[in-house]
């Protein structure tokens, strides 16, 4: 079996009045980059990359540079292909666009490799530790009129209570766009709305310096926050270490990090309690399992970050299936030693409408697909609808 054809798809869905904010920017649209790899036997694999910026650079990287190197290759050798592509590009592509492109390719190749033998990716990677995974809701983003805080707190309370009623055990909340005082007020409203049983997670999207993050960590501690995600900018490793040492909440990060080399520094120098590689960013399944091996030797939990389309969610589910308990216990507890999956609750047709079967929450959990490869099928009509022409 040989690779015959590689196609790029840039997808966009304007959000209109559903626009929302993190601490860093407005999100006026959902966008993603998908790659379709076709073999001479008719098998097709899908991968995703380019999560955080415009998808065009990733498409160009694959179309003009990497795809020509893959035509005629055996797609069932994703690890070998990953290493060869990395060695080719390491002088100029250790982070960023080239790794995002390699992530998309790697996911698609594992998809094909699984289909070729009739096995899901989790089986190809050595087996799964669970048939479903607990989901945490990512919500309570900032609306367009975020500065009207006193008026907006009632709506925030209603939104948060809805996640608890929907069966989520955990809720991740965005902070960092407002003052520490105002964001603490938002978090306090949310805690009252969901009650004491729901695990609260917070994500600053690197809005703070170390001093502000430490202060915020101490303010949040009485609210029983389970982790503090991206407290400082990803380049500031010394700041990460300081926040981890001086604030009482476990520190999470890594969605903006790449490959085993980047995570060797993030984990090995004591920056995080929880590592969050994104499969569509860090290098795909091949890189994720290298990162997982390194993290486990340092006692660091791995909870993959998830953003993007249904392909990214499917890949994350396949990967999370293979993460062992860290540490092992006879009674796994989600987040404490059992991995969880991010399930963003903002409007996302690229996730909810792209695939033949939508991911469904049942008793707070999402089932891991059993079908060959990624275990999902792209809906061609939806693909055409979302295509940015």
UniProtKB/TrEMBL annotation:
Membrane-crossing residue ranges in chain numbering: none
Manganese found in the keyword field: no
Cofactor: Mg(2+)
GO molecular-function term, one example from the UniProt record: magnesium ion binding
GO biological process, one term: carbohydrate catabolic process
A Pfam family that the UniProt record links to this protein: MR_MLE_N
UniProt entry tagged with the keyword Metal-binding: yes
Coiled-coil zones: none
Keywords for this protein: Magnesium, Metal-binding
PANTHER family linked to this entry: ENOLASE SUPERFAMILY, MANDELATE RACEMASE, MITOCHONDRIAL ENOLASE SUPERFAMILY MEMBER 1
The protein's name: Mandelate racemase/muconate lactonizing enzyme family protein
Species assigned in the record: Pararobbsia silviterrae
